[in-house]
Amino acid sequence: MTDERTAVVTGANRGIGLAVVQQLLDRGFVTVLACRDTGRGEAAAATLTPAPGRVLVRRLDVGDDDSVRAFAAGLADAPGRVDVLVNNAGIHYDTDQDPAGADVGVVREAFEVNALGALKVSQAVLPLLRRQGPGRRIVNVSSGAGSLSSMGAGTPAYAISKAALNAVTRLFAAQLAPDGILVNSVCPGWVATDMGGRGGRPVAEGAASVLWAVDLPDDGPTGGFFRDGRPVPW
Ligand code: NDP
């Protein structure tokens, strides 16, 4: 087992996840870049500026139970340590327009990845997280679209799944508070990625909104929902 602080980021081969990996490396973490396709993950890792051996590319499809199990077993072997888990993997569909016309298959798929993905990966990684001391965090990359209080009629699959992800945050935060593990949801804002499209903020800024929840002190908030360090109404 490594004696260095170690982070895991899901959906990390592009977009916000990749920028989160870079910012974790900048903070000195050994970082696991988890991705569905390790070829694309290795190519993404080559764009980073790590010291040698500090990025570990691992296969993980958060929608596939067997993949989650295999991923967790691999982590237990090496690096054998997790201090920070960033549940970033997510999907959004251009066809996801309104609840009356929603394709239930699409809603189910979004739920499986965006909500259950974070639930399953958190469960699988928890035994490793529990072994560590101070500085342990689970950060769920949510969206303002999952805020019930400001929810309109748009993007039902995405909104339902992100609201459920926020419930995952609340549930784990309550259970893990006695262990000192902080669990928060963050919204990265509108970010210029494949998902966000053009016009959003730079990806490094969206990632910084995620890192805020990693950088929290051990007596910092848990079970909250934040954008750029400010609370977002549930
Ligand atoms: P991108 O579409 O650019 O990247 C999404 C990432 O998630 C990719 O690495 C993708 O992998 C991965 N992914 C998708 N499905 C799975 C799966 N089943 N298993 C593992 N990985 C998967 O999105 P962003 O970087 O923009 O978004 C990252 C997170 O931020 C998401 O949770 C999103 O909902 C959230 N967010 C984004 C906003 C924005 O404006 N961009 C706004 C608010 C929230 P692959 O390359 O294999 O497809």
UniProtKB/TrEMBL annotation:
PROSITE patterns: ADH_SHORT. GO terms for cellular component: membrane. InterPro entries: NAD(P)-bd_dom_sf, Sc_DH/Rdtase_CS, SDR_fam. One of its GO terms (molecular function) is oxidoreductase activity. It comes from the Bacteria. SUPFAM superfamilies: NAD(P)-binding Rossmann-fold domains. Keywords: NADP, Oxidoreductase. Belongs to the short-chain dehydrogenases/reductases (SDR) family. PANTHER family: (+)-NEOMENTHOL DEHYDROGENASE (PTHR43490), SHORT-CHAIN DEHYDROGENASE_REDUCTASE (PTHR43490:SF99). This is Short-subunit dehydrogenase.
